[in-house]
Amino acid sequence: MLISNMNPQSHFEIGYTPEIRWVKMLREYLPKCGITLCENPSVLNIGCGNNVKWNYLGVTLYLADQGLGMPNYVGVDMEEGAFAEARKALDGLVSFVAGDAQKLTEFLAGTYQLAILEHPNFTTSPKGSKVWQKILHETAKLLEVNGAIILTSFWLNDHMPAMVAVDRAGYEIVYNGRNKFPGKRFDTAENGELLQFDKYIIVAKKGASPE
Question: Which residue of 114, 136, 184, 195 has the fewest CB atoms within a 10 Å radius of its CB?
């Protein structure tokens, strides 16, 4: 498991709008991790919520920059209300599915080149680690052989168990640490850590087999 860039650095970028940050993140981490997307790739966003509109724009702008066309983009969340606003904004561009991501393969078909999981609640939910372990296993079943995931966390308390869960789900972690392009700071944890959107990032490739 590769651990890199875990210490804070003064050049972290926090002034970009969310979609531009994601363009920069994809430009930075996909080549660094040896991940190449095909033309019109299938992209899965798990726990998408309404903020998926920014991630979709970031992915779309990145693909346009690379001459890779438009994504076949699917957003999944537990309930319709979680993405109601985004569905209106992205009508006809993103396929939205309401369902329990622990059972992804029961309601999704096909394969995906990239899966994105922003801020999974590993520690703020009592069963967080167990739930997301199942979700990561299900995601792996839908990824192509050379498929990858990008998982971000806004504090270390979620990032550390995420590392363990990704590894146990059989992925090959190729980058793990502080994100060079985090979002705005929105709170401070009881332990004094600044909470920041996409503060930590894990990039991992689909492995041979999970535990």
Answer: 184
Write the CATH number for 151. Answer: 3.40.50.150
Evaluate whether residue 195 is within a structural domain.
no
76 CB-near residues (< 8 Å, 6+ apart):
44, 45, 46, 47, 48, 96, 97, 98, 99, 101, 104, 108
The model carries a pTM of 0.90
Residue 116 maps to a domain? yes
Q: Exposure pattern of 186-211 as b/e (b: 16+ CB <10 Å)?
A: eeeeeeeeebbbbbbbbbbbbeeeee
Domain count within the chain: 1
Residue range(s) defining the domain that contains residue 121: 18-32+41-100+111-184
Encode the chain (211 residues) as per-residue pLDDT tens digits: 333 333 333 344 556 899 999 999 999 999 999 999 999 999 999 999 999 999 999 999 999 999 999 999 999 999 999 999 999 999 999 999 999 999 999 999 999 999 999 999 998 777 888 999 999 999 999 999 989 999 999 999 999 999 999 999 999 999 999 999 999 999 999 999 999 999 999 999 997 654 4
